[in-house]
Amino acid sequence: MSHDLCTPLTSILGYIQMIKKGNLPKEKHIEYIDIAERRAKDLQSLLSDFFELSIIESSDYYIELEEININNILCEVIASFYSSLVDKNITPKIDLPEENIMIIGNEVAIKRVLQNLISNMIKHCKEDIYISLKKENNKAVLTTINKCDDFKEEDIDSIFNRFYKKDNTRTNKNRSTGLGLFISKSLMDKMDGEIYAEVNENLLHIFCEWNLK
């Protein structure tokens, strides 16, 4: 944990020190400010995830379960990523049923799970993504699929672990905290749901299942 906090902080301080020297060309000055700003946002995201996780894992944390229209929540979350999808030239292929699917869950928790899944796909995929929702075996099943060339079969058992990163290193080219899927699994567990992953050739499938109302 300390390493994950210190890495972006050390980077920020390093760029600030170079800027303070005052002998940089204007282009480099702007570049270093931009990099320091990005690293600060990385740190902000990491601290936010740490804080959220500490709440979720506290002994008195409780999620109130209720009847939820998951179709509406899914559409709302997908729409909130419109700018990010456009920026990366990603077209989401969405397959939703015409009928509304009512599940037992918590709206805030469901939104967070969906945000983590879609954000994760956008960060790690350069091609289009696939999102589907359907009823299956008395469950509501959400499936996300994205191409992931360097994802290995042996990674499946670790993907929902705390601080898991796809390349299994401390380098973080995609600016991920490594906590998103772990938080998603914690929230799914508290909603009596299930989240799991499969890899088929170069496609990563993540499934979320909720109990139907």
Which helices and strands appear, and what pairs or packs with what?
Blueprint: H1 2-20, H2 26-56, E1 66-69, H3 70-80, H4 82-87, E2 92-95, E3 102-105, H5 107-124, E4 129-136, E5 139-147, H6 180-190, E6 194-200, E7 203-211
Can you offer a commentary on this structure?
Keywords: ATP-binding, Cell membrane, Kinase, Membrane, Nucleotide-binding, Phosphoprotein, Transferase, Transmembrane, Transmembrane helix, Two-component regulatory system. It catalyses: ATP + protein L-histidine = ADP + protein N-phospho-L-histidine. Its EC number is 2.7.13.3. This protein has 213 residues and is α+β, with helices and mostly antiparallel strands. It has two domains: 55 residues, Orthogonal Bundle (Helix Hairpins); 146 residues, Heat Shock Protein 90 (2-Layer Sandwich), CATH 3.30.565.10. It is 45% helix and 21% strand. It is built from six helices and seven strands; from the N terminus they run H-H-E-H-H-E-E-H-E-E-H-E-E. A five-stranded mixed sheet has the order 2-4-5-7-6. Strands 1-3 form a two-stranded antiparallel sheet. Strand 4 and strand 5 form a beta hairpin. The longest helix has 31 residues. The termini are far apart. About 3% of the residues have low confidence.
Morphology: globular
**Largest sheet composition:** 5 strands, mixed
| Structural class label | alpha+beta
The H/E string reads: HHEHHEEHEEHEE
In the CATH hierarchy, the third-tier topology of the largest domain is known as Heat Shock Protein 90
Write down how many β-strands occur, each being a DSSP E stretch of 2 or more residues: 7
Order the strands across the largest sheet as they lie in space.
2-4-5-7-6
In whole angstroms, how far apart are the ends?
39 Å
**Proportion of residues in helical segments:** 40-55%
Low-pLDDT segments: 168-174
* SS element count, helices: 6
Strand content: 15-25%
CATH architecture of the largest domain: 2-Layer Sandwich
CATH class of the largest domain: Alpha Beta
